[in-house]
Amino acid sequence: MTRAGLTPERLTRAGAELADEAGFEQVTVSAVARAFDVRAASLYSHVKSTQDLRTRIALLALEEMADQAAHAVAGRSGRDALIAFANVYRDYARVHPGRYTASRMHLDPETAAASAGVRHAHMMRAILRGYDITEPDQTHAVRLLGSVFHGYASLEAGGGFSHSVPDSEESWSRILDVLDSTLSNWPMP
Question: In this structure, is residue 142 part of a structural domain?
Answer without folding.
Answer: yes
